[in-house]
Amino acid sequence: MNQKFFLLSATTWRYITNQSLLLPLLLLLLLTNLLVSPVGEFSLNDDWIHAKAVQRLLEEGQYRGHSYVAATLVAQAYWGALFCKIFGFSFTVLRVSTLVLSLVGAWAMARCGLALGLSRNLALLCGALVAINPLVLNLSYSFMTDVPFLAMSILSGLFFLLALQTPRAPLIFWGSFFAVVAFFVRQFGVMLPVAFAATVLVLWCQKQYRVSWSMVFALICPWLAAVAIALYLGTIKDAGTPIFQSLQGRFLMSAMDGLRHIPVSLCYMGFFALPLGAGRLWQIVRKYDVWNRKRLTIFLGFCCASLAMFFLPKILFFVWSVFLNKQSLWLNQYAYRMPLLKGDYLLDLAVGHIQLSDVNPQPVVSIGRWWWPITFAALGVAGLIFLNCVDIFYDVRWQQDENNVLQKRTHQKLFLLLWGCILLAIAYNPGRFFVYDRYLIPALPPLILLLAYQMSRFKLKGAMWFATFSCTLLYIFSVVCLQDYMGWNSAATAAQNKLMTVYGVNSESIRGLDTFNGWYNSDKFMRVYKTKKWQDADLKGLGPWVFDDEYIVATKQPKPGYEKFEEIPYFSWLGMQERAIVIYKRGPNESRI
Fold first, then answer.
1. Cα dihedral value 447, 192, 441, 110, nearest 10
2. On the CB side of 430, how many CA atoms lie within 13 Å of its CA?
3. Mean pLDDT of the chain
């Protein structure tokens, strides 16, 4: 009996270590859940809006959306409703539904690596690198649309990669099908088949890919159903918040954002792919990958041009101030090192959208000038990605490789390039006041795969060690930030709940987290002020959906005239210290606004 058990255990262990993609990633997810519990009856970020859409779906039996929803959301709403039907409605259950999709996305990413010809270990590293990304891990603990969209887009990309390797209509159908599902989470899911169609068109023009009518039908068929569903939903659901807004009054700022978007975006991609960059650096230093002068010139040219774009607003501000005697203060708001985005979730390495009234956008941990080496390292990896892009264009345009396998790899790389570039480009919205770094996440998988493929072409042993070690450091950092994020959200929720349950304070008299005020007050706010516009949430100037700020939940004195009422402590792994969420009460002599 003991011998059979030993043999079974040994077989299982060999399967996990040598064959399985899912089980190692599942173990990684379970480890994360043990370190930082996903349990908690509180909303995170803006997912209370999506939770209200699910709640309404469960009550009315069909999807009606919500006035504040900008994404299509419908597929995610039904996915969350399925979990709530089984386990009951709660934020924890909705969070678990996202964690399941996070695992699916990580597995699909590893499977994409195998489809690209990567070794199992390198493919697993790619899957893990997406799952443990600080923003992805943070958003996996919410019911935001980012992770569901990411998972569906990676599944779609997987089947399109397989279709480029083995041209078959069923593979194209499933790629298009999962793109439709991604579309019904976020509108930009339509870009996956666009990238695939553009790839096929280029290859067909070069007579490197044969297209049949069945393949065309397989690509289009899911979208015919999607159009019908979208038209029907348009007749029954709330209009929602538009994703495109007016450029009025901010044309110059939008133009500057547009000029900086690609170098800034690629720098973030470089930051998120630093572990692979460490492996590539080892290969270059050890001269397994020898660069000629042309490649070095392209690399340095990109890095220098990007730095110039980072400093451009400061240069223009100086020129206008000195030579034209004008001070355009909006130019002075741009960062010239990471974090480069005004709507940055990373802030100063404190991952998460901090919505306390007194810390927006004050970071939890400030590392100041230490961002400089991180910026240069990220820019170096971004240069490697850019160099990859140049190589792919050269291979597609000039290389006529007789090796069938290498030719198919070039086809797959072209698709990955178009997939990444399109999703990076659409993250820029001229009408939006800023781009959140989480908007760049959908472009990360294809660019990671391209970098991993480049790494696989040279000696891997030492490079894998460096990449794995760096990935471990990134995982530790992500978990530490996640614990802090869940910690202060849990403490703030405890403070808000205590005010209502112990002291009998009405939610309308509390200025708490935006998520709290949105969940409890937004419905009445829309009725009282007769508006369903997201932009009108702060009509009274007290904070989004706040009727009265008699009590304020914060981390420090929010404004004069308030006295400390009670503290709710929590322990943070960021700095390994105890912190507190404080309830402040308006003084008796202060007038009510």
1. -60
2. 12
3. 89
